[in-house]
């Protein structure tokens, strides 16, 4: 089958994912997963979760380009994009991935700062007298 494209998002990070038949290569921003994330084992597992759940670790090649946010948000965006690409690749993966919540975009993002406050909700110390 031809290449499949999908987009994953988390906070302000965006991941563009291309998936095709192959031998299990995963390239993120031109690097391997180990080179990109270093020693962050739990985040590496999060990125690989859709492939592990769908049992596709060694049958597809994936190229991911991430931008915006930090490395953790980029990893979650890549996870979301890989899940969506797998569903676009074969519709049967939807029933496998959906119960794990891998197709849901995590909509939590940073709340904006309000005027008169130090941060979004933090106020200066209250003085009664």
Could you outline the blueprint of secondary structure elements for this entry?
Blueprint: E1 4-10, E2 13-21, E3 26-28, E4 31-32, H1 33-37, H2 41-54, E5 60-67, H3 71-89, H4 93-97
Parallel strand pairs: 3-5
Antiparallel strand pairs: 1-2, 2-5, 3-4
Helix pairs in contact: 2-3
What does this structure look like?
- The protein has 129 residues and is an alpha+beta fold.
- It has helices at residues 33-37, 41-54, 71-89, 93-97; strands spanning 4-10, 13-21, 26-28, 31-32, 60-67.
- A five-stranded mixed β-sheet has the order 1-2-5-3-4.
- A hairpin with a 2-residue loop joins strand 3 (26-28) and strand 4.
- Helix 2 packs parallel to helix 3.
Spatial strand arrangement across the major sheet: 1-2-5-3-4
Count of DSSP helices?
4
Radius of gyration: 18 Å
Mean pLDDT across all amino acids: 93
Descriptors for this entry?
five-stranded mixed sheet; 129 residues; 4 helices
Concise overview:
With 129 residues, this protein is α+β, with helices and mostly antiparallel strands.
